[in-house]
TrEMBL record:
Physiological role: Ferredoxins are iron-sulfur proteins that transfer electrons in a wide variety of metabolic reactions.
Any Pfam family the entry gives: Fer4_21
Cofactor(s) this protein cannot do without: [4Fe-4S] cluster
Protein name, as recorded: Ferredoxin
Segments traversing the membrane: none
Alphabetic keyword roster: 4Fe-4S, Electron transport, Iron, Iron-sulfur, Metal-binding, Transport
SUPFAM superfamilies in UniProt: 4Fe-4S ferredoxins
4Fe-4S ferredoxin-type domain ranges (all copies): 1-30, 31-58
Length: 58
C-alpha cells in the first residue's frame, strides 16, 4: 500500500515532496501533500521526514 497523508495533520511544509526519492508526492491546490500511488514504493522516507507525522504507510 502507498503512503497515506492525513490531511488534517499536514502542515504544508513540503518536506515530503523534497525527500521522496520517487517523486511520488506533490502538493494540491490547498498545499496539502498528495501521494501518487503508482509511483510510491513504500520506502518510508516521507514518513520519517514528515515533521507533523501526517504520513503513514498502510
Amino acid at each position: 500500500m502507498p503512503a497515506v497523508v492525513n490531511r488534517d495533520e499536514c502542515v504544508s511544509c513540503g518536506t515530503c515532496v523534497e525527500e521522496c526519492p520517487e517523486e511520488a508526492i506533490t502538493m494540491d491546490d490547498e498545499e496539502i501533500a498528495v501521494v501518487n500511488a503508482d509511483k510510491c514504493t513504500d520506502c518510508g522516507t516521507c514518513v520519517e521526514a514528515c515533521p507533523s507525522e501526517a504520513i503513514t504507510l498502510e
